Every structure is written in structure tokens, then in C-alpha cells.
Amino acid sequence: MLKVVCTLASLLFLVQASFAQNQVALTIDDVPNTSAYQANGFESPLMRTTDSLRIPVTIFIVESKIYATDHVVQNFALLNQWIRKDYVTPGNHSFTHRHYSTVGFGAFTRDLLKGEAITGELAAKAQKALKYFRFPYNDLGTDSTQHDSIARFLTEHGYRNAPFTIESSDYMFNSLYAHYLRQGQPEKAAQIGRTYIEFTLTLFDFFEQVSADQYHRPIRQIYLCHDSALNARYLPELVKKLRARNYTFISLGAALQDPVYQHREYYQGKWGYSWVYRWMEDKDRRSALMKKEPFLMDIYEEYKKINSVN
Length: 310
Known about the structure:
Elements: H1 2-20, E1 22-31, H2 45-53, E2 57-61, H3 72-84, E3 88-92, H4 100-103, H5 105-114, H6 117-125, E4 132-133, H7 144-156, E5 160-161, E6 166-167, H8 170-182, H9 186-215, E7 221-226, H10 229-244, E8 247-250, H11 252-255, H12 275-278, H13 283-292, H14 297-309
Parallel strand pairs: 1-2, 1-7, 1-8, 2-3, 4-5, 6-7
């Protein structure tokens, strides 16, 4: 009996120790990026980067991007390359990337199923399951009725919603980064890249602390970013700095084994908030923490200014 008790105690210690480590899953939305594929010589800079990193990656695919340029054959081949990578888990991000709260249940679910037509076939050929779905804009609907309806639909069709805990508005940084490169200002582009890394690490600090306060332990984080030139250049630096903070990179499936992802979601609106907030029953606490979340107003204002001109 004592031997059994000791064995159980050892197993419990190992489980607790695994959750005490800093762990993060890397997820990349809006794959494949075909907008500059021809200009890049029909090579994916981000794919070269992820090849070099040797970490698990989950990609969320928007199939309409295959048809976004005149090079459909090459774009199709790019998607196939992504899915066949042994470190890649494919996920569905819908066909056209529309807001669920705007288009409604019928149109959205049709778009969702359309978004698996090619991806599902390529995944099957690569002997991979297509079981994760991420909502465009992380918009799960305007109210509890829409939330519940789509949750049932996902379950019925063998999907699990892919949450995130940390994202750093990398689309804004990428817009500025690309702008300054086009303007022939590589120094300013590099500064944007460095600011992106610093800001992302600040957000990791913030959500680590919130998680520790809420759950009294580190949780397995899920980082959301996008298929972009910015991440092709700066993702290795982010990975290096996170490793220096004793982070290990795990698959999305491994991250979702953390019991925190079984928590009830109390937020029932359309905005794409971190799941760390969605799990908070106390609305006042949620609101107070959201107001404390780091934000770079100067980057936001610069992003608005540049995109109003372009």
C-alpha cells in the first residue's frame, strides 16, 4: 500500500512540475501569405524561419488566399508545403476570414466548412488530423446564443476552438515594418522590429503575472501571431529571448492539456480578448486588468496615420 501511495505521489509531483515550467505554443494565423509570394521568388520567408527554429507550430489556414493572386498553382503548392512539414499542425481559419458576429450563423458555418475542403484533403494525405478551428478576429459571436450555437457546431464537426492567451498586435507592427522597407528606410523598419520584440516580451511578463495571481502557477501559454515579413525576420529573436527566460515550446495540443483550458468562459461578446480574461467571472476585475494591459499608443497612432494615407 505504501508503495502505491509513493507512486501516486511521484506522479502527482511530475504533473505539478510540468505545469510549473514556462511553456508556450506558437500559433500562426492567415497562412499561406501569398501577397508577396511572387516577389519572394515563390519562396516563403516565414517557412524558412520556422524550418530553422525546430519547434512545433500550428498554422491557421485561410484557403481563399490561394486564389488571391494569379498564381493559383504556386499558391496551392505553398499550402501543401506548409501542411507537409513534420513540425506543423494544420488548423482551419475559415475560407474568407469574416466576422461571425456580422455574417451570422448560416453564412459563417458555410464559410467554415468551405475552408476545410482543400486543407482537409492535404492534411489527410500528410496523415494529419484537421481538428482545430480559430475564429477570424477571435469573434465568437455577439452574445451567449451565438457562442453556444457555434460551440455545438464545432463539436458536431469534430473541431476544437483554438484559444490564445497572448498576442501583441503584430499586424500593426508588420504594417509599419513593411511601410518603412518600401520607403527605403531600413533603420526605421529595424526599430519597429525591435519594438515589436520588446513589447511582446512585456506582454508575456504581464500575462505571466496575471496567470500566477489567478491560478497560483504558470499556465501553458498560447501565442498568436501572423504569417508576415515581420515574423519571418524577428520570430527567431523572440524565440531566443523566450528560451532565455526558460520557456520551452510545445504543441498546441500539449498546451490545451493544461486544465486551465477547461475553465468556463464568462465573456460572451464579440471582441477578440485573451482567454485569460474570458475565464474571469468578475467583470470588474476583468475590466481593471484590461486597462492595465501594456499598450503602445504611439505605434497605434503611427499605424492609423500610415494606413489612412496608403
